[in-house]
Amino acid sequence: MLEDHTKIMHAIAESGEIIGRKKLQKMIFIAKKLTFPFAEKFQFHFFGPYSEELTLRIEELCNMGFLNEVKEKKGGYYQYRYTLTEDGKQFLAVNKMDIPHLQDCMIDMNGQNARFLELVSTVLYFNNLPREEVQDKVFTLKSKQRYTVEEVDQAYEYIETLKGKVQLV
Protein backbone atom coordinates (compact mmCIF):
# COMPACT_ATOMS: atom_id res chain seq x y z
CA MET A 1 0.00 0.00 0.00
CA LEU A 2 2.77 2.46 0.90
CA GLU A 3 5.14 1.34 -1.88
CA ASP A 4 4.94 4.62 -3.80
CA HIS A 5 5.34 6.58 -0.56
CA THR A 6 8.34 4.45 0.34
CA LYS A 7 10.02 5.21 -3.01
CA ILE A 8 9.67 8.94 -2.36
CA MET A 9 11.05 8.53 1.16
CA HIS A 10 13.93 6.52 -0.25
CA ALA A 11 14.71 9.27 -2.80
CA ILE A 12 14.71 11.93 -0.08
CA ALA A 13 16.86 9.74 2.18
CA GLU A 14 19.37 9.25 -0.65
CA SER A 15 19.50 13.04 -1.10
CA GLY A 16 19.98 13.82 2.58
CA GLU A 17 17.89 16.98 2.45
CA ILE A 18 16.01 18.63 -0.39
CA ILE A 19 15.46 22.37 -0.19
CA GLY A 20 12.44 23.57 -2.15
CA ARG A 21 9.13 22.13 -3.28
CA LYS A 22 9.88 22.93 -6.90
CA LYS A 23 13.27 21.24 -6.66
CA LEU A 24 11.73 18.11 -5.14
CA GLN A 25 9.13 17.95 -7.93
CA LYS A 26 11.79 18.32 -10.63
CA MET A 27 14.12 15.76 -9.07
CA ILE A 28 11.40 13.10 -8.91
CA PHE A 29 10.23 13.89 -12.45
CA ILE A 30 13.77 13.69 -13.85
CA ALA A 31 14.39 10.44 -11.95
CA LYS A 32 11.17 9.00 -13.37
CA LYS A 33 12.22 10.00 -16.90
CA LEU A 34 15.55 8.24 -16.27
CA THR A 35 13.47 5.06 -15.70
CA PHE A 36 13.53 5.04 -11.91
CA PRO A 37 10.28 3.41 -10.67
CA PHE A 38 8.23 6.43 -9.60
CA ALA A 39 4.50 6.12 -10.26
CA GLU A 40 3.38 9.75 -10.02
CA LYS A 41 1.77 11.30 -13.09
CA PHE A 42 3.08 14.70 -14.18
CA GLN A 43 1.57 17.44 -16.31
CA PHE A 44 3.07 20.67 -17.54
CA HIS A 45 2.49 23.54 -15.13
CA PHE A 46 3.83 27.06 -14.45
CA PHE A 47 7.27 25.83 -13.37
CA GLY A 48 7.49 22.86 -15.72
CA PRO A 49 6.40 19.30 -14.96
CA TYR A 50 4.29 19.06 -11.80
CA SER A 51 2.57 16.17 -10.04
CA GLU A 52 -0.41 16.70 -7.79
CA GLU A 53 -0.01 13.06 -6.71
CA LEU A 54 3.52 13.79 -5.51
CA THR A 55 2.32 16.84 -3.59
CA LEU A 56 -0.36 14.71 -1.89
CA ARG A 57 2.09 11.92 -1.04
CA ILE A 58 4.53 14.41 0.48
CA GLU A 59 1.68 15.84 2.57
CA GLU A 60 0.65 12.33 3.66
CA LEU A 61 4.24 11.44 4.60
CA CYS A 62 4.42 14.58 6.73
CA ASN A 63 1.09 13.73 8.39
CA MET A 64 2.29 10.17 9.10
CA GLY A 65 5.38 11.59 10.78
CA PHE A 66 7.84 10.06 8.29
CA LEU A 67 8.87 13.30 6.60
CA ASN A 68 9.89 16.60 8.09
CA GLU A 69 8.82 19.74 6.20
CA VAL A 70 10.36 22.93 7.56
CA LYS A 71 8.94 26.21 6.25
CA GLU A 72 11.43 29.09 6.27
CA LYS A 73 10.84 32.71 5.32
CA LYS A 74 13.46 33.71 2.79
CA GLY A 75 13.19 37.27 1.54
CA GLY A 76 9.74 37.68 0.02
CA TYR A 77 8.85 34.01 -0.16
CA TYR A 78 8.78 30.78 1.83
CA GLN A 79 11.16 27.92 1.24
CA TYR A 80 10.58 24.33 2.34
CA ARG A 81 13.18 21.82 3.53
CA TYR A 82 12.52 18.10 3.39
CA THR A 83 14.26 15.44 5.47
CA LEU A 84 13.25 12.10 6.91
CA THR A 85 12.22 12.00 10.54
CA GLU A 86 13.59 9.33 12.89
CA ASP A 87 10.32 7.39 12.36
CA GLY A 88 10.85 7.71 8.61
CA LYS A 89 14.39 6.36 8.89
CA GLN A 90 13.16 3.43 11.02
CA PHE A 91 10.38 2.70 8.52
CA LEU A 92 12.92 2.61 5.66
CA ALA A 93 15.25 0.38 7.70
CA VAL A 94 12.43 -2.18 7.99
CA ASN A 95 11.11 -1.64 4.45
CA LYS A 96 14.40 -1.71 2.57
CA MET A 97 14.36 -0.76 -1.05
CA ASP A 98 17.05 -1.41 -3.61
CA ILE A 99 16.96 1.11 -6.43
CA PRO A 100 20.39 0.87 -8.08
CA HIS A 101 22.10 4.17 -8.94
CA LEU A 102 19.30 6.31 -7.47
CA GLN A 103 21.59 7.76 -4.81
CA ASP A 104 24.17 8.94 -7.37
CA CYS A 105 21.50 10.65 -9.45
CA MET A 106 19.66 12.20 -6.50
CA ILE A 107 22.85 13.60 -4.98
CA ASP A 108 23.91 14.99 -8.34
CA MET A 109 20.51 16.61 -8.98
CA ASN A 110 20.37 17.94 -5.43
CA GLY A 111 23.62 19.78 -6.16
CA GLN A 112 21.96 21.69 -9.01
CA ASN A 113 19.81 24.78 -8.57
CA ALA A 114 16.03 24.65 -9.02
CA ARG A 115 16.13 26.95 -12.09
CA PHE A 116 18.44 24.54 -13.93
CA LEU A 117 16.39 21.50 -12.88
CA GLU A 118 13.29 23.31 -14.17
CA LEU A 119 15.01 23.60 -17.55
CA VAL A 120 16.21 19.98 -17.53
CA SER A 121 12.75 18.70 -16.60
CA THR A 122 11.14 20.85 -19.30
CA VAL A 123 13.53 19.46 -21.90
CA LEU A 124 12.73 15.92 -20.73
CA TYR A 125 8.99 16.63 -20.73
CA PHE A 126 9.17 17.37 -24.46
CA ASN A 127 11.80 14.73 -25.26
CA ASN A 128 9.59 13.20 -27.96
CA LEU A 129 10.11 16.35 -30.08
CA PRO A 130 13.15 17.29 -32.18
CA ARG A 131 15.76 19.32 -30.32
CA GLU A 132 14.95 22.56 -32.18
CA GLU A 133 11.27 22.29 -31.27
CA VAL A 134 12.15 21.59 -27.64
CA GLN A 135 14.32 24.69 -27.62
CA ASP A 136 11.46 26.74 -29.12
CA LYS A 137 9.09 25.40 -26.44
CA VAL A 138 11.59 26.32 -23.71
CA PHE A 139 11.98 29.85 -25.07
CA THR A 140 8.20 30.27 -25.42
CA LEU A 141 6.85 28.55 -22.31
CA LYS A 142 9.69 29.60 -20.03
CA SER A 143 10.28 33.09 -21.48
CA LYS A 144 10.36 34.68 -18.01
CA GLN A 145 13.32 32.49 -17.09
CA ARG A 146 15.31 33.87 -20.05
CA TYR A 147 17.15 30.62 -20.75
CA THR A 148 19.92 30.82 -23.33
CA VAL A 149 20.84 28.43 -26.14
CA GLU A 150 23.94 27.55 -24.08
CA GLU A 151 21.80 26.66 -21.06
CA VAL A 152 19.59 24.42 -23.20
CA ASP A 153 22.75 22.72 -24.50
CA GLN A 154 23.93 22.30 -20.90
CA ALA A 155 20.58 20.71 -20.02
CA TYR A 156 21.00 18.14 -22.81
CA GLU A 157 24.57 17.44 -21.66
CA TYR A 158 23.39 17.05 -18.07
CA ILE A 159 20.67 14.59 -19.13
CA GLU A 160 23.34 12.48 -20.85
CA THR A 161 25.50 12.62 -17.71
CA LEU A 162 22.58 11.37 -15.60
CA LYS A 163 21.77 8.63 -18.12
CA GLY A 164 25.40 7.52 -17.82
CA LYS A 165 25.02 7.18 -14.05
CA VAL A 166 21.91 5.03 -14.50
CA GLN A 167 23.56 2.74 -17.04
CA LEU A 168 26.59 1.97 -14.85
CA VAL A 169 26.84 -1.72 -14.20
Top keywords for this entry?
single chain, alpha+beta, three-stranded antiparallel β-sheet
Written description of the protein model:
By secondary structure, this protein is α+β, with helices and mostly antiparallel strands. The protein contains eight helices and five strands; from the N terminus they run αβαββαββααααα. The strands form two sheets. It has a three-stranded antiparallel sheet. A two-stranded antiparallel sheet has the order 2-3. It is globular, with a radius of gyration of 16 Å.
Give a short summary of the structure.
The chain has 169 residues and is α+β, with helices and mostly antiparallel strands.
What topology emerges from the helices and strands here?
Layout: H1 3-15, E1 18-19, H2 21-33, E2 43-45, E3 48-50, H3 52-63, E4 67-74, E5 77-84, H4 86-94, H5 102-110, H6 114-125, H7 131-141, H8 149-166
Antiparallel strand pairs: 1-5, 2-3, 4-5
Helix pairs in contact: 1-3, 1-5, 2-6, 6-8
What's the order of the H and E elements? HEHEEHEEHHHHH
State the share of residues found in helices, binned by percent: 55-70%
Over the alpha carbons, how many angstroms does the gyration radius reach? 16 Å
Q: Residue-averaged pLDDT, rounded? A: 95
Strand runs, count: 5
Distinct helical segment count: 8
Largest sheet: 3 strands, antiparallel
What class do helices, strands and sheet pairing give? alpha+beta
* N→C terminal distance: 30 Å
Q: Roughly what fraction of the amino acids lie in strands? A: 5-15%
Oligomer class: single chain
Which segments are poorly predicted (pLDDT under 50) over 5 or more consecutive residues?
Answer: none
Side by side, the strands of the main sheet go 1-5-4
